[in-house]
Amino acid sequence: MKSATSRRNDRLITQEAFDQMLDWLDSDRERAGQRYEEIRSGLIKIFVCRGCLDSEGLADETINRVIRKVPEIVPNYVGNPALYFSSVARYILLEYQRTMGTMTQRRHSIPEALDQVEEDGEEIEREYECLDRCIEHLTPVNRELILEYYQEDKHAMIENRKRLAARIGITLNALRVRADRIRNSLQKCVAECLRSKDAKAERQDDQGWRGR
Amino acid sequence: MRPGQELDDQQLIKRYLLGELGEEEQATVQDRMLCDRVFFDRLRLEENELMDDYLSGALTGESRERFKSYFLAAPERLEQLRFAKALKKRASESATPKPDSDAAPRPKSLFSLGGSTLIRLAAGAAVLLLLLLSGWLAVENARLRKQVDSARAEQATGLERARDLERQFSDEQRRSQGLAQEIERERGRQSTSARDAAIPKQTRDAGKPSIGGAILSLSLLPGLSREGGESNRLEVPPGTNRIRLQLYPEKATYQSYRAELQTRDGRAVWNGDNLRSSKADSGDQVVVGLSAGILADGDYILTLRGIADNGDRERAGTYYFRIVKR
Questions:
Q1: B170, B227: one domain
Q2: Does B314 lie in the same domain as B206?
């Protein structure tokens, strides 16, 4: 059995090993960096889609395992390196499912979490505040587009979007892509806003404790 | 792209998102997610569309059930859904009355309004705003007064509780000192034996005089356990007061750490700030002390984040363990 130190050292990733992986992705360092980010976000999405709890951690674990294998595989590997990441991710998923139990076991708690989303609780209010702030930061054109895009329900929504696309002079599909882009930037902004609110609350708690 | 390919992809992605594909098809989709950026963007688009359909009631029957039981399994998805709901609500609130038919005049876009109309609208809005503001201020004033009164009452109760706790602490300290002396006497009687530092291991540590009762300790390495999680199992006997987790971070160069503990279902259990790493024989470690009472039987995930010099939180390790109460 390996000692704790050697097991731990096995898990350490050196800068040299990381650079080797980047070289494998692309000989141009900038493009390699971009490719790395794309693969990482793709891996995170895969783990999210498969219902994992710590998708970022699992994506990093996948990348670390690939990095450790790079010196061995690069000389003989043929094809898109991303496919190798994908096959390692499949093993990680199997290990995850073994460690955490099957997904069917943990789905029992979803209705409860969904109830929380459907209730207009304190968290939703915080989210609204941040959303308002982020909407204010959009350009007027994007603000109008995103608010109009999400106005109606069901069939009225489709008709509304068709009218909106016609008015702007783009196809419905182009409108979807544009609204999606604005929505993603808003979501990032809201997440950032909530994080800074949390950090502020923590600082206040900390000061409160120190003050006692 | 061949004709109809886009529609096929759309169907494939939707089935993948709802967990309707077999393992092989899932693997194909995942390969494309990593190799084809356009496909990946389309998947993100479909994710959002599915959430909108769910919120608007357009997703029905089996698909709706699969959405709830499969699509929402990851906590990120619930966050996305909450965001989508907030966005939809804001959009509905900002909705302007729609014309009855296409022949009727359309409400003008903000940017096509004439100057005089804008001024009239602005003046009207300003008056309305002032009225609303004064009403709100009156209500807010009353609410704040009520809050001050209740805060005063809470402060008095808090002081009383603090005194109680202080008394309990003194009693506990006296008891602990007695225990420490007893342990020292016991140590003197027994010959010393070398401590096996192999991890992960479970030890009973009674050598901390500041806490009365048993302390259990578990050393954890970051990442998933290849042995299927059994090595990260902590059996907690009755009477255990504290659980001490020794975490080996992936990177130990941070000034301080933050630890976040959640259950397998993603429910937050505990978090701690300003944690420091210390040197141990087997490497740098961050020690987290938990009250045994907050941990029930089940699986837990602890996320350790290092606080960088610029204040950013960076992932320093994720640890999985199981609590089994005896």
A1: no
A2: yes
Q: Using CB atoms within 10 A of its CB, is residue B289 exposed (0-12), middle (13-18) or buried (19+)?
A: middle
For residue B91, the chain A residue with the least C-alpha distance is A147
**Are residue A124 and residue A195 in the same domain, yes or no?**
yes
Determine whether the interchain pair A99/B228 forms a contact, defined as Cβ–Cβ distance below 8 Å.
yes
Asked if residue B139 belongs to a domain, the reply is no
Give Rg (Cα) of chain A: 23
Residue A182 lies in domain: 120-199
Percent of chain A at pLDDT > 90 equals 48
Candidate from B34, B69, B87 with C-beta closest to A186: B87
Candidates B87, B199, B223; nearest CB to A150: B87
Counting the structural domains of chain B, the total is 3
Flag whether the ipTM exceeds 0.90: no
Expressed as residue numbers, the domain containing B165 is 157-186
Q: State pTM to two decimals.
A: 0.59
Per-residue 3-state assignment (H helix, E strand, C coil) for A105-124:
HHHHHHHHHHHHHHCCCHHH
Give a yes or no: residue A195 inside a domain: yes
Contact list, B69 vs chain A (CB under 8 Å) = 107, 110
Instruction: Tell me the pLDDT tens digit for each residue of A66-106.
Output: 999 999 999 899 999 999 999 999 999 999 888 876 544 45
Nearest Cα to B301, choosing from B227, B232, B199?
B232
